[in-house]
Amino acid sequence: MNEAILIAIIEAGSIVLASIISGLAITLSARAILKKKVLRRRLMSAYQDLLFLYEVEKVHIDMEIGRGESDNKIKVRNIVRLEKELVLSGKSKSEIQRDLSALSSIDS
Known about the structure:
Layout: H1 3-66, H2 73-84, H3 93-107
Helix pairs in contact: 1-3
């Protein structure tokens, strides 16, 4: 085989290989970015659920106090912690709102 033809085949193969590698890199990067966006949306949803449940708890406590009953928030949380083995993250409503607003600004 002619030496010039062999060099041309090698050059063409290297160009094809380089384009395949760069295409794979772009695909992997795009997949990682998409996964990060999906995780960010799920985290935002979880934060919104926490805020909602804090408000439900507050309304429930206000209703109990309005009926002349005592506030059982701590007692109920302890029961859930002991029987269901679930614990709160320890984040306050303001911390959740701050995190949620930070996530919202990243997403836009």
